[in-house]
Amino acid sequence: MRFSRKSIILSGLAVFFAVSLLIAGVSLAAGKNEIIGWAWSDTAGNISFNSKNCDTDDNGVIDNTACGNVGSSVTPYEVAIASNGYLEGYAWSDTVGTISFNRAETGNPPSDDACVLSSCIAKVDSTNKVVGWARAISACNWDGSRCVGSGAGSNTGGWDGWIRFSCPKVNKAGTSCPFNSYSVTLNTIPNARGFREFLGWAWGGKEVAGSISFNHKNCDANEDGQSDGSEARGTENCPALGTPIAEYQVEKGDPIISLPTAQFSCDPYSCGIDDSDPCKCYSNSLAFLKLTNESEVVSEITQSDWSVDGVLASSNQYGNYSLKLSPGTYNVGLAVTNSKGTATTSKMVTFIKGMEADFSCKTSEGAWVNCSNLNLKVDQGTVIYLRDDSSVPFYSTASQGGTINSRVWTNNGSADGFSNQGGSFTTTTLKAFSTKIGLTITDSNSAGRTMFKEYNISPRPLPRWKESMPF
Fold first, then answer.
1. Distance in angstroms (rounded) separating the CA atoms of residues 26 and 161
2. Structure pTM?
3. I need a labelling partner for 198 at 20 to 30 A (CA). Which of 181, 189, 259, 361 fits?
4. In terms of Cα–Cα distance, which of 206, 149, 112, 145 is closest to 120?
């Protein structure tokens, strides 16, 4: 790593270092790739893109001897590439302080490339070229939350703090770059560590940062530790041929792992509830409430624990949960865990009494009983009485607050052969050796849902008479 630097003088710059402390505790969401490593400016020195450069185990304490003061605390910071290619977060230079990629803080950059607000934000485009701007916020007029204006601050010796990542020979506004053309690109081929390196130069203004190199390979292509020279490299930015060059580079690192956000939603589709509360469900033998795990950092979650009233009910890596409970109100919780820790959330879930289908059976001389008790007592051809009302032991019930709108009786799937079909009291004749008697009810409170109950009755065959000769 390269840590020597030339001295530069910015009048009053130290006043602005306090601004840099505002990045304390920066945390970027998942779905992004962090950037690690250093860039180098011959005038501004090292520019670090991640506090892990000095704090390799990310515990807030310097552990890299190259950074000096091992054991001293370090404020976390990082730059990351979001899923849409935009760079977010903060870089750091001991010389110029915090470099922000947050347009709400930096304000709009100079319009010499005629860029619009969105395209001015530093971004890795579809060709792996870095376009746009970032800004050292120590070099602007700071109002406590953002830079005021795109020009230089009052105490910076004329530097505006803008760092530009690419400039064609002639830009959109028809003007030329400050020196030749320059650009930063993201290599498509991973290095030996599996990371993709940035190559090329950015420009930080001749007053302070000058040309900023993102990789020692810009001037040392064969990596022999010596400059290839400006002439050999076709650029005026490299030291003279044979000048020692230490290794440095900026790389696209691993995906950022942050503390997950626990959240889930209720899906009452299988409950038949028509209510503004999706976490309300009818309770019966068929209804269940689907709980959908919508926690963030999906790919990094190692465990999801579902609980009911504080008691663990289900555990999986990242799954949904189907809940079926008796009538009542319950506190359903979800705890999701990744390498950063555990996050929790909970919702109140209500189950109300749901519809149930049932009925009783009897023969002409028998008592009303559960239909399954007739299996060994009924002869083929017997008339069976069926009843579904509160005067018999077994009968259907509507869901809470509803009524039974209709009944359909079936004998081996056929609705024929019933007296008072559709009523609560009917008869049918057992004709087959095995008969399935069924009842389907429709509930006014279940948005057209139905419930079905069936009993399998096995009547005995009628006796066969055969004439015999007298003795």
1. 21
2. 0.54
3. 259
4. 112
